[in-house]
Design brief:
By secondary structure, the protein is mainly β. The chain has a domain at 19-73 and 93-106. It is built from no helices and 31 strands. It has strands at residues 14-21, 27-33, 42-48, 54-60, 66-73, 79-87, 90-98, 104-110, 118-125, 129-136, 148-155, 160-166, 173-182, 185-193, 202-209, 215-221, 227-234, 240-246, 255-261, 267-273, 280-287, 290-299, 303-312, 317-323, 328-336, 342-350, 354-362, 391-397, 401-402, 409-410, 413-416. The protein has a 5-stranded antiparallel sheet with strand order 25-26-27-28-31, with no helix packed on it. Strands 1-2-3-4 form a 4-stranded antiparallel sheet, with no helix packed on it. It has a 4-stranded antiparallel sheet with strand order 5-6-7-8, with no helix packed on it.
Amino acid sequence: MAFCSATANNSNATAIYDIIQTADGGYVGTGVTNVVTNGGLDLWVFKLDSAGNSLWDKAIGSTNHDRGLNILELNDGSIMAIGYARFGSYNEAFVVKLNSSGQILWTKTYSIPSSHYTVNKSTIIGNDTILIAGYGRIGPFSYTGVFDFVVLMIDTSGNVLDLRSYGDTLLTDERAIKAIKTHDGYVIVGEYWGSPSTSLNIDIMVIKTDNSGTILWSKLYGGTSDDYPKDVVELPDGSLIVVGHTLSFGQGLQDIYVLKISSSGNLIWTRTIGTGGYDQGYSVQYYNNKIYIGGYLTVPGNNSDMAIIELDTAGNVLNTVTIGSSYRELGYTMRLTTDGGSVIVGHRDNTGVYQKGVVAKLDYRFSNRCTTGCLLGTGGIPSSGGSENNIYITKYSGTASVTPNGNALSGLTFNRECP
């Protein structure tokens, strides 16, 4: 069947930024919703079973805008959603811990005095340490109005283990996007908002530290326009793959940008992937000598579709699959799943007015795909007729009510659009 599309039956906005497969074969994700708000947008956490049916969800927030960006499952089955909350004119890191049934165990915020502290992506080290990357005004290199990389390390109880900032002495912004543990230390990637001498261009900044957090090297990558990182992964040989988007290179207005960097910071190769419109890479995974990128690509009609792209370690594009409808879909985090498939999340703009959170599950990665009657470049969505029963998509739909404490809601449902 062709890709199914349906218009949501309510006017509430949702978006999903991260998802993981849980130990029971289901999925938990996080994002943002205004379905029933505590005063603004709320951080949203939901649980699906392996077939994409809704099991539970919660929205947690302050009276301002709050957002969930990352979701983690701990060894005991509990869930941690990480994002940021806005209090007054300042952002704070926002962490919510829930049990496997969706009961909120605790919520914590982490602030830097008089600082717009905003977090981006998070990662778990081993079983008990979480790295949260972001930016704020902190440390000896801070200037009024200037941000530095901030890396917060907490344990699974929310206790602060370490808080570090990295920046220069120029009037530049450094905004960390993600920090990861490598085999011999840590890597932090982020945006470097240049000084007047560099025409204020935005470059990709990568910092490598040892296990104690001491900087070993820091380097900038990019061109004469703006270039943005969104994710990073370490390969078995110690090299790094950084994924984002570029306005400096490529054929379109904005192309997916992939960089391979040696363990000492030397640029090995770069690739741009684009269709002539606005394209973006948001997440990257490595598995079995392949690199998998989640994001979105522009398709005919000036709409965007969620996209999963497979490359080899030399940077050659092996396969691309796009998932979309007559509306505009933006893809964010992609994960490989234990059944040999993949899942990607994002949101759909219904007629450009309301955003609807989307979860798309593929029962394959890039084998057994549609090979005849396919739209060019879609890699598995038939243009008409035929059948493709191993793709389905789910979206938010339903109503909810606020619990007595005013901080959580439940009753949201996901409806499958395709069997």
